[in-house]
């Protein structure tokens, strides 16, 4: 269950469904009797549709729309209550009496959650004093987006809202003047001083200043006009040259006279507001070398290191263009692990390679008995976070010689710590989920008691809800991460309304139409992942090793299988070996498709070959399955299976060597939240086929910059790949076209420079947004503090503290809850008829 009722399937859904059921009463009686057969339970979308399709003999449009958009239903005989999602983020709840189909009524999300709770804890569901959590109660006065297509475009909406607040009389612009007066760096005023303390005074001074610049050469340095400007009430920060000063003056003048969203965003992108940034990522082994593949350590580390480098470059450029002589500071704050397993994770400070002003700051986890020496799983990290937040606050203030200007959290633990620190210091805060565990595991909310002893999901879901609501803005990589697709709810959407039976009922957790949501897609490090055509930059020293990796006929610990025909192009995939990543699915598609096998070789990079080396049950099963598929389809001579690779530079050159063969990259995941390997491959000039489930569907424009493939329809997907290579065989320019257009797409939308510029602009704008809505923000913060102290802190007491005496596992816990299953088939008859 996921969301609150924020939209309508129709003007009167209950009346429409009642009438539709009446028209198809005999069919629907049979359908509802099937739902009743197994008694009280939760029915999933595919179960609802399967039974409906069996009895549907005519096209009843209203029922078809309801069943195609129903995500689940609660059966409490004689009632079936449907959770219907007509559009992303909009939910309706309809209760139908299976005995009397005219008995149909619409209910609230809270009522639906109570029905759902009867499955897990019927007594608690009837408790009139059960705790209900409602964050929407503090947001009722805040404006919200209204169109599903606008979700994730919060900055645009915020600029329009702020513009409306500043418009009208000159006095309406006073909040902006007050904000400008608050800008300073280590006690030194920036932009304006108290001489210009009203909008009218500022407007007049801007006119005088603009006239004074009209006769000066555009490249005149600011120092030449600084004394004159200071006499008029202006301080440094307007620009480094007369040209830039003039641009900033004009932007501010236009905002004061006739505000519009474009000029407002342009102005805030120029203001000197951010110099010091703190990024939190406590769990795992955070380092620059020898850490990838260690427990809880993977893509998030790579993401943050690339993010830091890009943000530093952008900050340096911004500060220079503002005419300031200030050195930016960026800190990644993580955990110091004394038993560092050969890494540098036991060092308190570490400079980031390729930067001048960015460092890793490590602070240990501390308990009453001392410092925890060993790694602790991200599932067991919660007892340490509050003390960690207290300890890092003083460390940050010392390291930066003052407060940071922007705090960014990562994942559940980093987001919670960032919320605690930002609240204490009064700093603008952003959060990045990376992955929300609640959406990975089916029914992990109503089954929380069953799962909590091992995974502590109650702590995680409450922590996520707290940090989402505390954040000033939320950074997502894709639209689907926020609000999913037409068929599937988004990761954040799943926190809109949910229940933890026996603990609390979250009737309003987060609203995906909130303007705090923004999409800023990351890129790939373009010093590592660059086009194969840039021969002068290529890492040729890796070529002998890559030659051996791809083409030697010897089986060893790094590779097995061989490629008999070196003239064939290579289709290539690289990922973890688990069910969702679906590498075994790709191998089976290839094995079954004789046409594809005749055209290309297959190279798989992932895991290792001996299942006994894995401590993850799912990975062990996939390794065994891969061996079985190679034997079943007699793939030797056409497949090369390479063990997981952690050297980024060599991986970048591996992509390019695959491009040299005129091959392609295939990402076949059942679901992929973002798809960093897709970005890497396209950066290197590899034509790319990627899953249509999740982020890659947004990265690739199908048939233009690459191809979407359906991971649940292997025949269709493998034939799509084969069609491409047949066309390339007759027309080599076809391959070049997709290589070039994929690269063009990346450079237009998916680079770290674009990302860094977006995030820093968000930090500036939402800093003012927070000040503009400070009363509402303070009220909500009080509610969050109460929820944190009365709920979260008590839950944390149930999480056992790790012991340095206990042997720590070498990988994340082996017994996982089952991932949410993928769509049962590519498209049902119902979906074809009604377009869901």
CATH class of the largest domain: Alpha Beta
Reported CATH architecture of the largest domain: 3-Layer(aba) Sandwich
Helix content: 40-55%
For the largest beta-sheet, the strand count, sense and barrel status come to: 8 strands, mixed
**Spatial ordering of strands, largest sheet:** 11-12-10-9-15-16-17-20
- End-to-end Cα distance, whole Å, is 19 Å
Q: Give the strand content.
A: 5-15%
> How many strand segments?
27
Strands, helices and their partners?
Blueprint: H1 13-23, H2 25-36, E1 41-44, H3 45-55, H4 61-69, E2 70-76, E3 79-87, E4 90-97, E5 104-107, H5 109-120, H6 122-125, E6 132-134, H7 154-166, H8 174-182, E7 184-185, E8 188-189, H9 199-213, H10 226-231, H11 242-257, H12 261-270, E9 276-280, H13 299-321, E10 329-336, E11 349-351, E12 358-364, E13 366-367, E14 370-371, H14 385-400, E15 406-410, H15 411-425, E16 428-432, H16 437-440, H17 448-455, H18 457-470, E17 473-476, H19 479-483, E18 498-500, E19 504-508, E20 517-519, H20 543-551, E21 559-563, E22 570-574, H21 583-592, H22 594-599, E23 601-605, H23 617-632, E24 638-642, H24 648-660, E25 664-667, H25 676-683, E26 688-691, H26 696-699, E27 707-709, H27 714-730, H28 732-749, H29 752-772, H30 774-796, H31 829-834
Parallel strand pairs: 6-19, 9-10, 9-15, 10-12, 15-16, 16-17, 17-20, 22-23, 22-25, 23-24, 25-26, 26-27
Antiparallel strand pairs: 1-2, 2-3, 3-4, 4-5, 7-8, 11-12, 13-14, 18-19, 21-24
Helix pairs in contact: 1-4, 2-3, 7-12, 7-29, 9-11, 11-12, 13-29, 14-15, 15-18, 18-30, 21-23, 21-27, 27-28
Function: Sucrose-cleaving enzyme that provides UDP-glucose and fructose for various metabolic pathways.
EC number: 2.4.1.13
GO molecular function: sucrose synthase activity
């Amino acid at each position: 269950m996921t969301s609150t009722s924020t939209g309508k399937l129709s003007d009167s859904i209950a009346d429409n469904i009642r009438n539709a059921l009446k028209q198809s009463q005999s069919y629907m009686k049979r359908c509802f009797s099937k739902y009743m057969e197994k008694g009280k339970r939760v029915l999933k979308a595919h179960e609802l549709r399967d039974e409906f399709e069996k009895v549907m003999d005519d096209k009843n449009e209203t029922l078809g729309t309801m069943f195609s958009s129903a995500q689940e239903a609660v059966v409490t005989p004689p009632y079936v209550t449907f959770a219907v999602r007509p559009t992303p983020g909009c939910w309706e709840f309809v209760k139908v009496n299976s005995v009397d189909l005219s008995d149909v009524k619409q209910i609230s999300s809270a009522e639906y959650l109570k029905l759902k709770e009867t499955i897990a804890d019927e007594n608690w569901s009837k408790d009139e004093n059960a705790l209900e959590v409602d964050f929407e109660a503090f947001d009722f006065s805040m404006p919200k987006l209204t169109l599903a297509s606008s979700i994730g475009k919060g900055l645009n909406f915020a600029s329009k809202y702020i513009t409306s607040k500043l418009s009208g009389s000159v006095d309406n612009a006073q909040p902006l003047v007050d904000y400008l007066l608050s800008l300073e760096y280590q006690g030194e005023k920036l932009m304006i001083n108290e001489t210009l303390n009203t909008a009218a005074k500022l407007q007049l001074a801007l006119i005088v200043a603009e006239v004074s610049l009209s006769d000066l050469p555009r490249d005149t340095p600011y120092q030449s006009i600084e004394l004159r400007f200071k006499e008029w009430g202006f301080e440094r920060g307007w620009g480094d040259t007369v040209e830039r000063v003039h641009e900033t003056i004009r932007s501010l003048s236009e905002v004061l006279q006739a505000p519009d969203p474009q000029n407002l965003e342009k102005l805030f992108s120029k203001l000197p507001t951010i110099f010091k940034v703190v990024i939190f990522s406590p769990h795992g082994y955070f380092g620059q070398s020898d850490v990838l593949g260690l427990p809880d350590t993977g893509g998030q580390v790579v993401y943050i290191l690339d993010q830091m480098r890009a943000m530093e470059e952008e900050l340096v450029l911004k500060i220079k263009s503002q005419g300031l002589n200030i050195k930016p500071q960026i800190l990644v704050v993580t955990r110091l692990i004394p038993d560092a397993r050969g890494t540098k994770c036991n060092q308190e400070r570490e400079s980031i390679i390729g930067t001048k002003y960015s460092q890793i700051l490590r602070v240990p986890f501390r308990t009453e008995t001392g410092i925890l020496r060993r790694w602790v799983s991200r599932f067991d990290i919660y007892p340490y976070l509050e003390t960690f937040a207290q300890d890092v606050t003083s460390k940050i203030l010392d390291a930066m010689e003052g407060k940071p200007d922007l705090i960014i959290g990562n994942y559940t633990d980093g987001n919670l710590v960032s919320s605690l620190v930002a609240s204490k210091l009064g700093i603008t805060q952003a959060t990045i989920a990376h992955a929300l565990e609640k959406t990975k595991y089916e029914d992990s909310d109503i089954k929380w008691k069953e799962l909590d002893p091992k995974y502590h999901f109650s702590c995680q879901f409450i922590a996520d809800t707290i940090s989402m609501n505390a954040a000033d803005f939320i950074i997502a990589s894709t639209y689907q991460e926020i609000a999913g697709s037409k068929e599937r709810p988004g990761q954040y959407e799943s926190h809109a309304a949910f229940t933890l039976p026996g603990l609390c009922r979250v009737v309003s957790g987060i609203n995906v139409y909130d303007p705090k949501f923004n999409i800023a897609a990351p890129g790939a490090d373009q010093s590592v992942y660059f086009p194969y055509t840039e021969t002068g930059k290529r890492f040729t020293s890796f070529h002998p090793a890559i030659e051996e990796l791809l083409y030697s006929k010897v089986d060893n610990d790094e590779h097995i299988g061989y490629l008999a025909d070196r003239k064939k192009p290579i289709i290539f995939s690289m990922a973890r070996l688990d069910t969702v990543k679906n590498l075994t699915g790709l191998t089976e598609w290839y094995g079954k498709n004789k046409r594809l096998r005749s055209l290309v070789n297959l190279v798989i990079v992932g895991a290792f070959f001996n299942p006994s080396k894995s401590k993850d049950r799912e990975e062990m099963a996939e390794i065994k399955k891969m061996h079985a598929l190679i034997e079943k389809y007699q793939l030797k001579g056409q497949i090369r299976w390479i063990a997981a690779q952690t050297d980024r530079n060599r991986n970048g050159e591996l992509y390019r060597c695959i491009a040299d063969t005129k091959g392609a990259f295939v990402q076949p995941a059942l679901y992929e939240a973002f798809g960093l390997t897709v970005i890497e491959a396209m950066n290197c000039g590899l034509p790319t086929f990627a899953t249509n489930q999740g982020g890659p569907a947004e990265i690739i424009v199908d048939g233009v910059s690459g191809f979407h493939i359906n991971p649940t329809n292997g025949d269709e997907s493998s034939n799509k790949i084969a069609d491409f290579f047949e066309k390339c065989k007759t027309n080599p320019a076809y391959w070049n076209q997709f290589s070039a257009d994929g690269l063009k797409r990346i450079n237009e939308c998916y680079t770290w420079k674009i990302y860094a510029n977006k995030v820093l602009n968000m930090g500036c704008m939402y800093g003012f947004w927070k000040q503009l809505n400070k009363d509402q923000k303070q009220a909500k913060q009080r509610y969050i503090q109460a929820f944190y102290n009365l709920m979260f802190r008590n839950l944390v007491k149930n999480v056992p503290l790790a012991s340095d005496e206990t042997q720590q596992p070498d990988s994340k816990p082996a017994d996982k809850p089952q991932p949410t299953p993928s769509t049962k088939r590519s498209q049902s008859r119902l979906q074809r008829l009604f377009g869901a």
